[in-house]
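can u do me a favor
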């Protein structure tokens, strides 16, 4: 991940508002719309002229592998359908050398999110209507972790890029 060019990261930087929308929608409504997946795929296609052909193929291969894993986890009932669809799209935005860093940030974001949500669910007696779906449901909105890990990686990449 060190010493990379701005072309490697442009897709993730352009994805940043989408990552915020994914996290916010999953937090407030406990669902990730299919529109976000289409927007993400469109953003990837728009930024492909800035990427090398091999990088594009590797990103698609990683996203396909991620989709296969997410599909299996969805069938087992371990993750939701929106999470299973949007996570591979997010992997299209991440350069191959940064995939392991993203996975580490994702695991930290999930641990932090689960802890925070458990505390909030225990302490909040009367949630606002905006967050009622999140507080009442016993599941974890993983879109928060997906979006925040992507934003953390995008912020970290700004320090590592050589312009």
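np, heres the sequence
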């Amino acid at each position: 991940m060190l010493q990379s060019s701005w072309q490697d990261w442009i897709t993730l930087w352009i994805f940043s508002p989408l990552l915020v929308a994914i996290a916010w929608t999953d937090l407030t409504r406990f669902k990730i719309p299919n529109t976000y997946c289409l927007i993400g795929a469109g953003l990837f296609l728009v930024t492909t002229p800035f990427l090398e052909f091999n990088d594009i193929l590797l990103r698609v291969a990683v996203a396909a592998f991620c989709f296969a894993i997410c599909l299996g986890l969805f069938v087992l009932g371990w993750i939701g359908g929106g999470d299973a669809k949007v996570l591979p799209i997010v992997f299209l935005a991440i350069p191959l050398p940064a995939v392991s860093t993203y996975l580490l940030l994702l695991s930290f974001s999930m641990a932090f999110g689960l802890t925070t949500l458990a505390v909030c669910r225990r302490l909040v007696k009367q949630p606002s209507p905006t967050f009622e779906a999140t507080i009442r449901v016993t599941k974890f909105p993983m879109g928060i972790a997906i979006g925040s890990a992507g934003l953390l990686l995008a912020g970290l990449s700004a320090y590592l890029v050589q312009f």
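The mean pLDDT is 89. hope that helps!!
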